[in-house]
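Notes, Module 5: Reading structure tokens.

Key idea: the token line is not a picture. It is a compressed description, and you learn to read it the same way you learned to read a sequence, by spotting repeated patterns. We will look at two proteins. The first is printed below with its tokens.
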Amino acid sequence: MVQTPTKTLTLEEFLKLPETEPASEYINGRIIQKPMPQGEHSALQTELSPAINSVLRSKKIARAFSELRCTFGERSIIPDVSVFLWSRIPRKENGEVANVFSIAPDWTIEILSPDQSQTKVTKNILHCLKHGTQMGWLIDPSEQCVFVYLADRPTAFYDEPDLLLPVPEFAREFNLTVEGLFSWLLD
């Protein structure tokens, strides 16, 4: 995790800055650059959004977005995958998806990178839950496990291959096992 030591900026000032590569997030008045995704992270992220969308988007239940900036609760974060209920997707007057998402996702999914702080990522998931997100996943490719966060229940841990991963109620038609998730690293 790279922290850019600069003077404290307001959220509004941060949002006016040009985007960085890799992306930067605004957390507690500081700009924190996300690590560059590596192979495992990229493979899982590349497969997960379309898998979710193949079930939920086609029925206009929800839509998954990769690397989408979400600004809410005095933070501007970029979850690896953000899933929004269809009715909550910000839209332009003509019905197209808007560029600015000033709300928390309904389901936030983070994939841990080797150089990334698990604590920082967990704090982002907890921030989302505090602002209305129904569920958060933290996927750890190196340990081949998934931590599942809910606002009203203890954190659950999934590492048995045949376990079906829990999803928010709106996504109940989307089924994925631990083995199915991590099989994307083999293909």
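Here is the second protein, with the sequence above and the tokens below, as before.
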Amino acid sequence: MKKITIAAAVSIVAIAATAYASPYYALNQIKAALAERNAEALAEHVDFPALRASVKTQLEASMARSIAATAGSDNPLAALGQSIASAMLGKMVDTMVSPAGVVALVNKSAVSPQANTNADADAPADGAQKKAGYAAGYAGLNTFVVRAKDGNAQEGALVLLRHGVWGWKLSSIEIASAMAAR
């Protein structure tokens, strides 16, 4: 009887530990897929419909604020301009937020290993690239958030949502306010 109790307790602890560590494992797999430029492996870890909706909503809200600030609320052409821009924005987001689009964006971004390595003012003298620091942790039982290490909410974040007990998928990107305003 004692062996069964110990075995059950060890099993429960093992299940709880693997469930707790599962978003870190998913994050590592996403990172590996991006490093390998493997769109198919990336697609397994991203909920693209939810991600598209998240990005679209944030960009539309930013665009609406920008139009309201420049055109004013009493301008009748502002609504027309916003509806046209919204339709174009939807198609752009649908194209960009796809497995191939995300891999292409990473290929051209500063986080890419093949990115331009010209010396910056803050770059170390020995040519080594400054590595970005990130903090990752649970924001709820089914939500896992990855932020820049300084923890500034204005810098944006990646949000993974639980899919099953051990499965996690990138479902939202909180776009930095400075980037969304462009």
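Summary for the second protein:
- Helices lie at 2-36, 39-43, 48-71, 76-96, 99-108, 177-180.
- The radius of gyration is 21 Å.
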